[in-house]
Fold this sequence. Notes:
Elements: E1 2-3, H1 7-18, E2 24-27, E3 38-41, E4 44-47, E5 52-54, H2 58-66, E6 73-75, E7 80-85, E8 89-94, H3 105-109, H4 116-129, H5 137-140, H6 144-150, H7 155-170, H8 179-191, E9 199-202, H9 206-220, E10 224-227, E11 233-236, E12 241-245, E13 248-253, E14 256-258, H10 262-268, H11 277-283, E15 286-295, E16 304-307, E17 314-317, H12 319-322, E18 328-335, H13 338-341, H14 345-359, E19 368-380, E20 401-403, H15 416-435, E21 444-445
Helix pairs in contact: 1-9, 1-15, 2-15, 6-8, 7-8, 10-11
Amino acid sequence: MVVGGGLAGITAALDCASAGAAVTVLESRGRLGGAAYSFTRDGIVADNGQHVFLRCCTSYRELLGRLGATHLVTLQPRLSIPVLAPGGQVSWLRRSDLPAPLHLAGALARYRYLGPRQRASLALAMNALRRVDPDDPVADARSFGDWLSVHRQSREAVEFMWELIARPTLNLRAADASLAQAAYVFQQGLLSDRAAGDIGYAHVPLGEIHDVAAQLALAQAGVDVRLRLAATAVLPMDEGFRIEAGAAAPLVADAVILAVPHVRAARLLPPACGVEVTRLARLGTSPIVNLHVVYDRRVLDVPFAAGVRTPVQWLFDRTSGAGLDRGQYLAISLSAADAELDMTVEDLRSRFLPALGELLPRAADARVELFLVTREHAATFRAAPSARALRPGPRTSIPGLMLAGTWTDTGWPATMEGAVRSGHAAAREALKTVARKPEVGTAVAA
């Protein structure tokens, strides 16, 4: 039994089914995909937020292949990020074919938003970050912002370079993030392999991949997917588990994988599972706010861009994916959006439309045909100092009960890659439990 139909649950279900287990997935919503989904509003198909992956996200890319969805995404042949500033300024961050970390030397040397001394200091700090051990509890307990300060990173360097990468991946400002987690992100994505940071994204709505394609792949694998059925209790029995789901008939299973957010997992975990609910609560949450803006004309000539000296963090052209045949639809992603979370739609409109006009000259004269706001109050756990010690592994103290989700200890922050890796880990442990039984069981009405 897999409780939760996000990326972790989808991955775990496919792994278990491919190993010969009979698998049932319970999903409380009417769709799969978890935190990476699509919705339709005012005639456009929009994603709840812009989700990207990197070339180093090998597990997520493998999942795309299993779903038959590789053709629905785009992966840059080479890292190339346009960074916009007010007044129509642009500076490109492009990698070369030199070995890492020299592949970034040219990009740093030409980065116009930092002076020569700041760029030299930045290069030295990046080299030092390569030597930080992400598994060191001391590094995990330290603030990334504190480390940057010790390494003489200016306010501009932090804002215009370090947080350009760290904020959307960690969903925290540098001052609030764990050094170990930040080091992991930079080491995996930028500093170890020249191609690791090439950016990928879906060119269709995420629902076509994480819901439609996923349901088809699960059905072909023989997985029983039950939507709009929420587990309300997971109860260990002498043999296996009893899963209650509201007014529906209880189910029984040999093994259970809880692939739900940590807040919900804390409510479902039975006593004696070895996971302290208070520890999960201390993981906390961090919000993401997304703005969806439709203009009457094209105002952005690239698929995506980052912003500096502006409240706009990252913006993406989603026109084609939304099914629009005129104008342009931009999605603006705001990570660590504690301030924006409490702003009204009108306040957000008043702040961000002028900011977009400063970054994109054509937007200043364009007519805004639609302005939507989506808010993910608990988008991710907080990758704060000492959070690693709070993240449990896939196993619990109850044989056959496993955990999956971005909040489990995968080493990765709360990303699609982390979700998929957690699903693999939970499935491996669940299959060990099932293999010890005389027959591979299934979830049936109790």
